[in-house]
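ZP: hey, is the flavin-adenine dinucleotide complex queued? I don't see it on the tracker
AM: it wasn't, my bad. submitting now with these inputs:
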Amino acid sequence: MCPRKRKPPVTPPAANPDGWAGFTRRAFIKTWSAGTLTLAVGHNAMSSETAQPDETLAADEPVQLTLDVNGRPHAVLVEPRWTLLHVLREELGLTAAKSGCERGECGACTVLIDDLPRYACLTLALEAEGRRIETAEGLMDGGQLGQVQASFMKEDGLQCGYCTPGQIMAAEGLLRQNPEPTFDEIRRGMSGNLCRCGAYASIFSAVADAATHRKG
Amino acid sequence: MLTPFAYVRPASLQDAVAALTEGNAHIHAGGTDLLGCLRDEVFGADRLVSLAALGDLAGLRETRDGGLDIGAMTTITDIAAHPLVQRRYPGLAQAAGEVASPQLRNQGTLGGNLCQKPRCWYYRGDFPCLRKGGHKCFAVNGENEYHCIFGGANCFIVHPSDIAPALVSLDAEIETAGPSGGRRLPVSQLHMPPEQDPTRETLLKPGEVIVKVHVPPAPAGLYSSYRKVRTRRSWDFAVAGCALALVMDGDRVRDCRVVLAAAAPIPWRSPETEQVLRGQTLDDAVIRKAAKAAVANARPMTKNAYKIPLFEGMLLEELRKAAQV
Ligand SMILES: Cc1cc2nc3c(=O)[nH]c(=O)nc-3n(C[C@H](O)[C@H](O)[C@H](O)COP(=O)(O)OP(=O)(O)OC[C@H]3O[C@@H](n4cnc5c(N)ncnc54)[C@H](O)[C@@H]3O)c2cc1C
């Protein structure tokens, strides 16, 4: 429909109780934060005001948003129609979550939101504000693979690998909820992630292996 | 990329109702059905009204009468996992647990599940079908293996919800808020029969929001269950399903509701089956007669007659399970 607009990287705003300083690109930058909307006017924070919390964000007006991704706040300008998947991949450069069907059917975009696996392709970035978002990048333990990642390597839980980051996040979410899943619970817990290579048997073994070693 | 829309996240229910009355606004609950429809351009939206800030709309509460209130923004995961639901209304817990995938249950809400759009591939695809304001139903002479065997006067969708049939079987009611106040409505009267209006899925008025669902207290001897048949083990919509709510008096059926899923454009109560069961001892002769009665008036399309033995067999199995309790 609309050509993809690349936004220049946004520097996180300096802490300023009266509004955001440092934005000169637009006359008004709307800042969406913790359910309330504030208007910051240029760098003249004196005249900033708090707008009605239920003020409508215009379709063509990007809004300043802070997303908590892998434990770090990220300031981004987003359009209301942007999905979390788009923002992760195209704005933040976090490309583990994959774009597959874009319709909640394949699971390649699975991320954790407040510890629960969800589809980033069906989540608006605005709706993820104020919540803990985790991607496969966040499972790394320094330079080391996290346990679920290591188990997928060990058990060969993949073939082409495209669905793997989503599989790993679904597994991570499952094990946080249920650290000792039965085989049936693994199969059910992983049922929202399709693998076109059909590596299911080794995916399920990888999840079982991760469960054993997390207990460890 | 989705076509641009404005976005608002009202802080009160009244503001949400007000925001819905302007332009082509749509409620955004979990967004799992809505964003898919917008992506496929099944319909458009000028603005989305997010209910995310309405914390009061999420959660389950036991009511004073011993029933249960479930807020419209409660996630399907939370319904399936709730101990009270599992204990008192296992049919509802089973239905919620059978919905879609873990990710979608974590995000999808009760209100959204009840108001979701049908999955007919002509409706979702590039066909100017009756439901989209066109002149005909393409399923009639097309690929109709997953379409309805009951209630398809002009449009032949099946209602996609697993939860709605379970709620209908439990005599649940919705409570709404709207521009002209709120109302209560049985879930059995929420969905629009296509012969009345094939372009709408529910009887909700413009700007009307489901606030919660009330499930009445479980009568003594209530047996409830939900069975879903699909074409694969991974997530999928039902090919056939049934919600049973039998009020048992020993091995006699005092009262009952039998509601079929994926059978009709709306959750399909089967008075024929209920009539056979009511007042009877649940023995095998009665069970076989009831299962037959369930499909006696079915009107299959060109490619879905397989659903008749499927529904009959499913009811046989489910009623036999009930008889063993
Ligand atoms: C891949 C896939 C598989 C699925 N499989 C199944 C399945 O097996 N069984 C099943 O039952 N469902 C299934 N679904 C549907 C899924 O359960 C719904 O998408 C979900 O329940 C919708 O909830 P939501 O909160 O995301 O709704 P949204 O997408 O936010 O809203 C859906 C619709 O309901 C309206 N709405 C939402 N809340 C309210 C309210 N409180 N009052 C009035 N209107 C409201 C919205 O305006 C919109 O039109 C599947 C969906 C997908 C994408």
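AM: back. Chain B has a mean pLDDT of 97.
ZP: great, adding it to the tracker
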